[in-house]
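INTERNAL AUDIT FORM
Audit reference: QA-55
Scope: verify that the stored structure record matches its stored sequence.
Auditor: D.O.
Record contents follow.
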Amino acid sequence: MKWTSIIAIWALFWVLSAFLVMPFGVRTSDELGIAKVPGQAPSAPGNFNPRRILFRATVLSTVLFWLYYANYVNRWITIQDLDIAPLLGI
């Protein structure tokens, strides 16, 4: 696998991971007991920490990528394993 492919696939995993980890650990101002800024939506996070999200997304995407790469090298699951046409009688 080319290094450019590795970077592109890891980046795709990173974006997916960022959206997956974003809602975890976030609390609203009401839950934290802090005052809201005038005009703030009631559902807005009161403890948003982008560094934590970046770190969690990086760790998760790296683990997911290495699982993907191990499958790519060892051929545990191939495209033939995912072919459901024979099961459907097509």
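Auditor finding: record pair retrieved intact. The two ends are 33 Å apart (CA to CA).
Action required: none
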